[in-house]
Write a structure and sequence with these properties.
With 447 residues, this protein is mainly α. The chain contains 17 helices and 2 strands. Strands 1-2 form a two-stranded antiparallel ribbon. The two termini are 37 Å apart.
């Protein structure tokens, strides 16, 4: 009971920002639950093209966060960046509802670039460096993310598949509008933090329009941008690493964490891509005799994170060997994908519960990877006293989305059985490789 009271003993601003983020994630995950299915069934895109667009979109949302953080620091300020980003996101969802597809995705990329990284940074401003409430505040923030994701994947998917796509995207837009209205109504709780550092420059609208245009070109030309965007992401990462190296900070542990992030979340990205397509084509679409929307499989991810976080944390702490901590999540994912492949070889049309089980296992493995990634990044960020360290996280996620897109296109192109088995074998090799580096990993993670 005391720990629960401590959890909720936070600045009022943290509750406000957690509420706003919950509705942003509601809108984001509601849209992502529909995106691949919308391209396949409403727009009649081919499967490779749809999966390529999905991967490029996810990568640009992450990469844009680096630019959004820079613009907030130099011109907008955190609060205005969040507010402007939220309104642009809402317009993006409405554009999708009206089938203005690529302009809608471009608006979502621009809006998310301004919103996502900056709301996390604004929460951090309400704590002193040694404030013991910080962890509890970010726990509430993370809870809000997953509550929003859970509600969205259920409600937006149900509306879209039973009443029409425009209702699903419209509900996603309504969620973002609600979050923004709350921020406007209760902005006094922010106590002036996150305000504009200087007058916004006149060229900013053109810059944002240019970003949207670049995003459209990348998505339409996904077959070209899918292999080229990693070069941009890696280049940004190298620039950040070079600046950090000048501060004589040990970066081996950070580099290892980022490689782990890219390789693991490339496989995890299959939840929203190849597994959605597989569910649409190769399952019964019923659970315990009740009809279920294809997008409902995505609701397992936040459910597992919300209800099994404590179990995963206990298991993570129990595994003392650093190499095993890194290897086990990969082996769980590999086992889940291999099991799905062998099951489909035996039963051409699988029960929906089989895919749900795979999603649940991958989501549980995610809980084992997350603590290591964010702990390492936050420790290096504190040591460097440089927020650019956290800019490496969206760069890592963008690379994961691009690699995941390549995986999903391979899975669907070569046949689900062979595709899932090959990806499972690759993920197994990643895990074994990390396990084989036991002594080196100990040296790196203790550096």
């Amino acid at each position: 009971m005391q720990s629960l009271k401590a959890l909720f003993r936070q600045p009022k601003s943290v509750f406000l920002l957690s509420f706003v983020q919950m509705w942003n994630r509601f809108s984001h995950y509601g849209m992502r639950a529909l995106l691949v299915l919308f391209m396949l069934h409403a727009l009649k895109f081919s499967t490779p093209f749809a999966l390529g667009v999905y991967a490029v979109f996810c990568a640009l949302v992450e990469l844009g966060g680096v630019l959004g953080a820079y613009l907030a620091q130099k011109t907008f300020g955190l609060r205005r960046a969040i507010l402007y980003g939220g309104w642009i996101v809402a317009l993006g969802h409405l554009s999708l509802a009206m089938k203005w597809f690529f302009p809608g995705l471009a608006l979502l990329i621009v809006g998310s670039s301004l919103f996502s990284t900056n709301i996390t940074a604004l929460i951090g401003e309400f704590y002193q460096p040694q404030d013991v409430r910080r962890q509890g505040g970010f726990t509430l923030f993370y809870m809000g993310i997953n509550v929003g994701a859970l509600l969205a994947t259920i409600l937006c998917g149900f509306l879209a598949e039973n009443f029409g796509w425009e209702y699903g995207f419209g509900l996603a837009a309504a969620g973002m509008v609600l979050g923004n209205l709350a921020l406007l109504k209760f902005r006094h709780l922010l106590s002036g933090k996150g305000e504009t550092p200087e007058a916004p420059k006149k060229g900013l609208p053109l810059l944002l329009i240019g970003l949207g245009g670049f995003a459209i070109l990348c998505m339409v030309g996904q077959s070209i941008s899918l292999p080229l965007l990693p070069i941009l992401a890696v280049g940004l990462g190298i620039l950040i690493f070079r600046k950090l190296r000048k501060q004589n900070i040990p970066l081996k542990g950070l580099a290892l964490s980022l490689v782990t992030l890219v390789l693991f979340f490339a496989a995890e990205e299959q939840i929203g891509s190849s597994l959605v397509v597989f569910t649409s084509e190769k399952t019964t679409h019923t659970l315990f005799g009740l009809p279920m929307a294809t997008s409902s499989i995505l609701s397992l991810n936040p459910i597992v994170i919300i209800f099994f976080g404590a179990i995963a944390n206990a298991l993570y702490l129990k595994i003392k060997n650093p190499s095993r901590r890194l290897a086990i999540p990969f082996l769980i994912v590999a086992g889940a994908l291999a099991l799905l492949s062998f099951s489909h070889m035996a039963i051409p049309i699988l029960p929906l519960s089989s895919v749900m089980g795979v999603v649940a296992l991958i989501s549980f493995a995610e809980l084992l990877v997350g603590p290591m990634l964010y702990t390492t990044c936050s420790e290096v960020s504190s040591a460097a006293k440089d927020p650019k360290v956290m800019g490496l996280v969206p760069i890592g996620f963008s690379l994961a989305a691009l690699l995941g897109g390549t995986m999903s296109k391979f899975i669907t192109a070569t046949g689900y059985d062979l595709g899932f088995l090959v990806v499972a074998a690759m993920v197994t090799l990643f895990g074994i490789g990390l396990g084989g580096l036991q002594a080196r990993i100990r040296q790196v993670t203790s550096a």
